[in-house]
Amino acid sequence: MDKIELKNAVEAILFASGEPVAAERLALVLDADEQDVLAAASDLAEEYESGGRGIRLVRLGGDLQMHSAPEFAGAITRALEQRRPPRLSQASLEVLAIVAYFQPVTRAYIEQMRGLDSSYTVGVLTERGLIEPCGHLETVGRPTLYRTTDLFLRSVGVSALEDLPPLPELAGSDAAAQLQKQVDALRAAEEAAAEEREDA
After folding, report:
1. Is the distance from CB of 123 to CB of 130 less than 8 angstroms?
2. Which residues make beta-bridge pairs with 68?
3. What is the number of other CB atoms lying within 10 angstroms of the CB of residue 175?
4. Widest CA span of the chain, in angstroms?
5. Rounded to the nearest 10 degrees, what angle do helices 90-102 and 174-199 cross at?
């Protein structure tokens, strides 16, 4: 399979899937090298973006997925008559920041960091698909561990957790202040994206 055929095959599979597909799986079914699959995906992503196309191809860790271009979110919402999901509350942003930077974490750890009961907020973020259970801590009671999802990565516009802004060294009372800065940054990004959608 030459480069053009490989690129077209990757495009067809990702379009048909609608969900993230592992580059390793694509390489297996296409009988190709994984690096060649990733190179084909990178070429496609560049073509979509530089051409001002309505779709994008993103890499989420080892997975690849197609999605609509963010600048057309407003038009898509109007065309499909979908309501914009409610903005995340301050509590949700705080919990999301804790999970993102310290995962995997238990609800007790989140509550220790916030100093507040967080069971409802953890439930809301789980229902919205931004965090998910990922096992149990091997201790008394075996509490559930939580981590962020691929939807979280797409929502904040990064391909991997390593692409998140670095969190400074945390110690004592400074930890809450530094975490609050990250929460404020998440809120600003969410509000900016909402304004762009409204202006579209």
Report:
1. no
2. 55
3. 14
4. 58
5. 120
Q: What is the pLDDT of residue 40?
A: 92
Structure tokens at 95: 């919990």
Q: Which amino acid makes up residue 13?
A: I
Q: Where are the alpha helices (DSSP H) in 18-102?
A: 23-29, 34-50, 73-80, 90-102
Domains and CATH numbers, the chain: 3-68 (1.10.10.10), 90-199 (1.10.10.10)
- Angle between the N-to-C axes of helices 174-199 and 107-114, in degrees from 0 to 180, rounded to the nearest 10: 100
Q: What whole-number distance in Å separates Cα of residue 27 and Cα of residue 24?
A: 5
What pLDDT is attached to residue 42?
92
pLDDT digits (tens, 9 = 90+) for 32-75: 999 999 999 999 999 998 888 899 998 888 899 998 888 888 88
Threshold 0.90, pTM exceeds: no
